[in-house]
Amino acid sequence: MTAVLDTPLTRLTGVRHPVVQTGMGWVAGPRLVSAVANAGGLGVLASATMTHAELATAIRAVRERTDAPFGVNLRADAADADERVALLIREGVRVASFALAPRRELIARLKDAGVVVIPSVGARRHAEKVAAWGADAVLVQGGEGGGHTGPVATTLLLPQVVDAVDVPVVAAGGFFDGRGLAAALAYGAAGVAMGTRFLLTADSPVPEAVKRVYLGAAETVVTRQVDGMPHRVLRSDLVDGLERAGRVSGLARALRNAAAFRRLSGLSWRAMLTDGRAMRRGRDLSWSQVIMAGNTPMLLRAAMVDGRPDLGVMASGQAVAVLDDLPSCADLIDRIVTDAVRAIERQAALLRPDAS
How far apart are alpha carbons 268 and 254 in whole angstroms? Predict the structure, then answer.
């Protein structure tokens, strides 16, 4: 039987184990989220690449597969953020996570409905802000994490945030095993969140050929050429080509990808423009960076859905270099928690009475 680690995160969300699967676009759908939930972790649906109707269908699909708590990751700057919040409340979703700081009013609305609010942050000041606004917990990602990332390592950022806020802190960036969970708990975190490790499981919907590329990878790179912001991905010929591309060709590609995403998502140009304006305000971006953001959904989809890593980018944390298997989510979480308990017990065995 898997040992139990009782932490503020497990008590807050109602999950058995302090392990969170992050909301990865095109990857964190009902299949993966329900597998994590059934294994006792907190699975999080990625909604940024879903229409409102697709999100409603996905939530119900998770409900059909599990009775355990789960979450949904939302874009706080999306034009229909209010409607999506209303959907979560109606459907009784346990956790709402955000990649950017949600408005104070959104936090209050969710909390009033009994939804746990956990924004992701990459700096101490951001954690302080959302905690002051009423967030129930924060997820802090260090620079080792995949996708959009910052320059500060988890080992430096995590203790800063733990010391700065009075809400539970979930640690992300570089975690993949029980030793990491034990270390995060020692820093004062209430649990860990992992993306790449859950992407590389038997329950992940990513095509097997793409998983093999990940398992063979030894290097990640942080590039701004995907969408104008620091983005940690696997190094590939495509990424190298993006790095060499000129500004004009990069913007032209981004416009084509934005048009393709518009057709796929059903968004109007007006809605995409509204989202773009919100992105500029929320992230202090130039219009060229906003246009480049059109690259992200389609370049990720090419690899994660279409199985064409040669035509897409593969977001990845640095932990990919030490991963070599594809366990089920149940086996993975069992292993992580068991190894974390053993690591904690080993450290406790170092204690002895002071003879002085």
Answer: 17
